[in-house]
Amino acid sequence: MSNSDQDLDRLDELLFALPRGNFPMTVSELNGYVTGILSCPDLIPPSEWLPHVWGETGDANFPDLETAEATTSAVMAHYNSIASEMTKTPWIEPIYAVDPNSDETLWEFWVDGFTRAMRLRPETWQTLFEQADDETQSSLSFLMALQDINEGNSRFTEGEIDEIDIQAPDLIPNCVAAILTVSRPELVLKADNVSRAPTSRGERPGRNDPCPCGSGRKYKQCCGKN
What we know:
The protein is an all-alpha fold. The chain has one domain (5-221): Four Helix Bundle (Hemerythrin (Met), subunit A) (Up-down Bundle). Helix content is 56%, strand content 2%. It is globular.
C-alpha cells in the first residue's frame, strides 16, 4: 500500500471516533470494503457506499463540520490510494488486523469488508461468477467461504478451518488479483508490472516467513505488516 503509517494511524483515529454503538468500520474492514468496491465491474458512487462506513444506521453523527470533512477526506484518500495501486498491479496488499496478545493475523475484518461491498451489487457479482473462468470462480468461492467461517456458518471441520485460517492471509491477495483480471480488465492492462507480479503463493513470503528485507523479523511483523 502507498498509504503511509501516519495516514493509516490518522484514519484509524477518525474511524474510532465515530459512535461505537453504531459499529463503524475498522481500517482493515474499510480496506477490504474499498477493495471490493473497486473490484466490482459496476461503478459505485461514494454517495452509496460511504454511509456503510459510518455504521449500521449510515449516520455518522459528526460533532462538527470540521470532523466530518476530515473523516470523509481520509476515507476518500484511502479509496484513491487503492485505486491508484490497482493501475500498477492487481496484487493488492491487504491491511489485516493483528491480535496484540497473540500476534495472530486477523483476516476476518478484511473479508467482512470485501463481502459487504459485494452485497451492494449482488446481481453484478453473480453474473460475473457465472461468466468467469475456473480460477476466478474459485477465488470468489474462497472469499465467500472465508466469510462463512467468519460468520460461523461454515461446513468445514475444525481442523480444516484451522488450516484455512493459516493460509488465508497469503491466499487473499491472489484471489483479488484473479478477480480483477476478469472484473476490471482495463485496470490490469494498465498495470506496468503485471509480468513481475507473483503468480502463486510459493513466490511470495508467507506471513510467518523471515522478511526478505533482511531485518530478521517475520514478514507479517515487518514489510508485510500493512
